[in-house]
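Q: I have 217 residues here and want to know how they pack in 3D. Can you give me a structure?
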Amino acid sequence: MSLKNMTPRHTTSISIIITLLACGMALPVHADSKIKKRVHKDGTIEYYSPGQAKAGKRTASLSNNKYDHLIREIAKREKVDPQLIRCIVQIESSFDADAVSVAGAMGLMQLMQEIVHYYKVKNPFDPRQNLEAGISHFAHLMKYFKGEVSLALAAYHAGLGRVKKNWSVPPIKSTMQYVKKVMQLYDPDAKTDYNNSVKKLYKRISSDGTLHIYSGK
């Protein structure tokens, strides 16, 4: 495109970039990332690093909720990443404090009755009480599994017993899908192919009566 054919939006966008470069300000780019160009319908030219653009948009979107001050306060006290809690709340209830699942889970973090009783929650639909119990419980699971996020998420969804037995995401379809959804929202680059860890076991009895259990591979 020649300069004389540029619209005011084109020239403004390019002028800003040229000004930044002239002032010695580098565009924020990782060493291993590539700068890409995107032209919007209104003619605006945008230069961006794909990974950074997605992460920034995702963080801004999730933190733009009316309960974020509570999430940040409680997550800081429990020493848990508030962004991870936002992702959990998004998948659990889409930030609906009055949400109730078919299984009876309640509120923002979808607390089950046993969690409500254990943490002495008087009103599970009260945002502060719900987040206090949910974040405290998740923080406990994170400590138990020594910071392994996927295991803590699996235990939050399926229960501690099912996860600690084999120290892995249990072969429960709904739990695998839950962990995958939260992890993809929290860290798009994280490995989330938990189906590969689920193997069908076979039984064989030898002529001498020995029982063999194997995966079939």
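Q: Anything worth noting?
A: Confidence is low (pLDDT under 50) at residues 2-34, 46-57, 196-202, 213-217. The beta strands are 36-39, 45-48, 202-205, 211-214.
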